[in-house]
Every structure is written in C-alpha cells, then in structure tokens.
Amino acid sequence: MTGTQVEAPIRAEEHLFWTTKEEQVLRERYQSGGAIECSSELPNRTILSIYAHAAKIGLKTSARKPPYKSSEHIDQAIRVTYQSTPKKGDIEALASRIMRPRWWVSRRAWQLGLVVPRFKEEPWSDVELELLDRHAHKNPEVIKLIFKKNGYERTATAIVNKRKRLELGLKLNPDPDHLTARQVAGLMGVDSGTVKRWIELEGLPAVRQGTKRTPQQGGDLWRINVRKLRLWIGSHAVQVDLRKVDRFWFIDLMANR
Question: Are the C-beta atoms of 223 and 208 separated by less than 8 Å?
C-alpha cells in the first residue's frame, strides 16, 4: 500500500486505560463537582465511566444532584391523573412523561393533598370466569399461566381472591347426598354452563343453596340431589358423553340403586 498512512483519531472510550492526566482531573474535581463537572475536562469519557473509575480509585463526591422542581404544568398533570380512575401503569407513565422518578410523583401528589389512587381491577369477562370455573382446583400460578395462554392477564392473588369470592375450588363434600352444579360438571366432563342448561331446559332437578352470591358473581349456587341426578341420567342418556365422565364415579352412581 502506497502513500502516507493517516492514523485515525481516537474516539470516545476507544482507549481503555486512564492516563495520568485524566486521573489527575478526577482527583482535583470529582470530590467537589462530581462526574458532571469532570466530564467537561474529559471529553473522551462518558459519565458512567467517570463514576466507575472514580469508585475504582477510591474517590467520593460531596456533590448532589439538584433537587427536582415542580411547576404549574407538572402539578396539573399530577392532579388530572390522580383525580381520575387510573389503571395499573398510569402513574409510571405520568412519571415518564414529566421526567420525574415514580417516588417523586407520589410524594408531590401527597404534598398537593391528593389521595393515593387505588387501582381498580378490570371486570372479569365471561370467558375468564369460565376458565376459572374449569381450572379452580389447580394451583393459582398454574391458573395464571392458563389465563396468559388464552390472552388474559390476572395475578395469582387476583385469582385466589376471585376463586374465594365465587366459592370455587376443591372442598370435601359435607353432604354426600347432594352435589353442586360445578361438582356435577366436573364429574360429567362438561362445563358449568352445560349443567345450567340441563337444569333450566332439560329438567335436571336442582334447588338453590341460599348463598349470598350476587348476580355479578353468577347468582346463588345450585344444589343437586344425587338420587334425582341418577334418575335424570337414566331418562336423558342422550345428554351424557360416556367418554368424558369420571368412570368410577359414574359406575358407582348408576349401580347404587
């Protein structure tokens, strides 16, 4: 190769070793001015590398970051967010928008006399309730993954609370002569909606249990007499899919005349 070879200039952070001159700048300025003041004398060093090297050689600084200041614009943004019904993530989004830490936003809201928002849980959809009903006997973390696989986001805590409110989950049956609609659904290999249809349209005998569940929770629970269930199955065999039933329970039910 002919001609004079020109050496490329060293760019920021391209040389790894700190020179004696650079370290001298750190020792003279870092303690009182911090990394910001040193950076003006060290154009080839980033703020992060200045912090790192100062710590490496045992330097500390008394300089503090300037306190965050508010303004009428920022205060108004905080008021609007806190006085609405914020959802999860809204406060974090506000902090990012006004370029302040999350803790500062909370403290400023308190100073403005605003109530810390309680995030309202999104209403449960019919599909979510059906999923919960079908998998209520499983570990909440497993149910959480099932929800996520089906496109729904619920925390394990939310699942536990909802399951408790709806009185779902495996329990010892205190009354062997009766079953709930959900228990019948599990034993017959169908969903609760099918059992409800059997009760309302196909004549499956059932009575209400007298619980305090509201219509939003699905209403009062059904109570089904085992003997009447057996008689109903005998006259509605077309409704039963023998491939789905709990075989041992079904044989015992039908044989126990």
Answer: yes
Residues 6+ apart with CB under 8 A from 142: 135
CA distance 30 to 39: 10
How many CB atoms within 10 Å of residue 182? Answer: 22
Interacting residues of 177 by C-beta distance below 8 A, sequence separation 6+: 225, 226, 227
Work out the pLDDT band at 4, boundaries 50, 70, 90.
very low
Cα atoms found within 13 Å of the Cα of residue 104, Cβ hemisphere only: 13
Q: Of 55, 91, 99, whose CA–CA distance to 73 is shortest? A: 99
Task: Look over the chain and give the mean of its residue pLDDT values, rounded to a whole number.
Answer: 79
Task: Quote the distance between the C-alpha of residue 244 and its chain's center.
Answer: 34
As given in the structure block, the two tokens for residue 161 are: 């609370």
